[in-house]
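**User:**
Make up any protein.

**Assistant:**
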Amino acid sequence: MANAIELRNITKYFPSSNVLANNDVTLSVAEGEVHALVGENGAGKTTLMNILYGLHRPDSGEILVYGQPAEIHHPDDAINLGIGMVHQHFKLVPSFTIAENIMLGIEPNRYGMLQKKDEAELVRQLADNFGLPVDPYARIRDLPVGMQQRVEILKALQREAKILILDEPTAVLTPQEVKELLAVVRKLAERGRTIIFITHKLVEVKDVADRLSVMRGGKMIGSRTVAETSIPDMARMMVGRSVLLELDKKPATPGEVVFEADNITVTDASGLPAVRHMSFAVREGEILGIAGVSGNGQTELVEAISGMRPVEGGTITFQGQEITRRNVGERRKRGMAHIPEDRIKIGLNLETNLDENLVVNRYKLPEFNRMGFMIKSAMRQFASLAIKQFSIAAAQPGEMIATLSGGNMQKVVLARELSGEPKFVIANQPTRGLDVGSIEFVHRSLVEVRDRQAAVLLISVELDEILSLSDRVLVMYRGMIAGEVDPQTVTKEEIGLLMGGSSLQETAVPQPQKEVVA
């Protein structure tokens, strides 16, 4: 089979961050195959695909498309060569219809006048031709995430893409939507399209890909046939060592209620309801998981629980005392810890060093503070212990936090939040953007703090993570609890229905939609 794509000896260096993202990388993708590109966070795979799509230019190396040398300086060059890219964060206009989004920039017109009926018919024919039915007149803002992704794929196909790059395409999908997407990918390959599938979910690689290539540290480690490569082998290639993929944890021994939310309501930044009349409790010695597609009120819920956002109605109780109006500092003093979803914006101060980030929640303690002056030696000793205990690789006390990798930054957050015997830990998307090795460490750390009889609230869009770690699971949909399930017995199909809004315990009131004008 001929190659659709050949990337030969690609090197890309970013001097501003002193990062060699691609180091003499060679990759071949056969025509008509689904080729998975996998690797740890920061391995260089997205940079490589951005080079192929014209978003970056390589410092050296060459690109061949269907055996012919190609100069790709801009996405328009890639599109003209039949290369399309569906980004992890969709590039759609919410207030436009499906047809308007797909035909944006190539609208049919007569004498300068747009032909809406012709536009809709072209989209309908395209969708039917590829077996991806859509309603051309539906507006993007009213569509579930899975359908929005279908629109992105159709948009690329309308521009005659023969080669499709899908960047982490299942990151925000329900299990049913994942299943549908993988079926679409296989169907496109059967019809001669070439698919490059960037993912960190190795089960999906086994389900959909013909071959895979693994990158590590900016280099190409190797390519394999998926049928002949086990998931543990994939993980070993990615990390460079064996990885424990199955979490070994003993049954929970829940005790007294540590945290309770009673009928709480929270609004978002626009004043619209994001959390509506939610009630739940977390006990000591258990992990309560909250599952749901991103954007269903999880962020606002966590901000309200941690004291970062006011509660409009209802009460919050922690260790038997109401703390509804208490600030962040007071909640922390009582033993609340918070692993935020964005370690860069909320979890860390990139302008300071590792030592200061580690003691920011305890710097007033006598062991670190004498008459208002910080005790540098005590901070340095605490940092040394944390580096060892939490395996913060290639880090030194006093090092600027911005020099660490994403995985090691997350370990700094863990070290700060899980040290000192917290009573209640909020872990919000704790493994977002991490490689399989770092994920293994985070999971083990959360189970260990649970086994020390802390209460843990886990919020994650990664369904496998929720089911693996949690002792009980709640499902959120549009700011409400759609149901509670047992992670040991529930199927992904059942929990996926709840994530999509089926079988709500009470009727969900549609929220006002915010229109985005292009």
User: Anything to note?
Assistant: The longest strand covers residues 3-14. Residues 53 and 61 are 15 Å apart (CA to CA). The two ends are 43 Å apart (CA to CA). Confidence is low (pLDDT under 50) at residues 504-518.
